[in-house]
Amino acid sequence: MNRKAQRRRTRPPHSHGYPPLPGLARLRRKQGDDGAAKQLLLDALATNPLWLHRAKLLPELIDTGIELEHLDDARAYLEELEEVSDLCTTRIGGHRDRGWIRPVALFLVQGVVKT
Hints:
Blueprint: H1 3-9, H2 23-30, H3 34-47, H4 51-67, H5 71-87, H6 95-98, H7 101-112
Helix pairs in contact: 2-3, 3-4, 4-5, 4-7, 5-7
């Protein structure tokens, strides 16, 4: 493969017209800006009605909701992800392999955080 074709394939998502999510939101969370991470994801959800596109953002929203102690929001995103997962025959981001992790995390946080 020539260098020009290789550069075209390895361009960042935003140069193809896609926002670099959920990676950018994950970076914001690691930088300690959970509110900005959540807002990035919510803006992407608002402009992306296709359920498969939404599905790749939902796990990060669940984790951010738990981190911010917005458990009702996290639970709603988990329910949406489970609905999408039921529609698919493929595994969305390993959700079916690790699908028990987020519900258990919500359960554990509820014992610590008053809802």
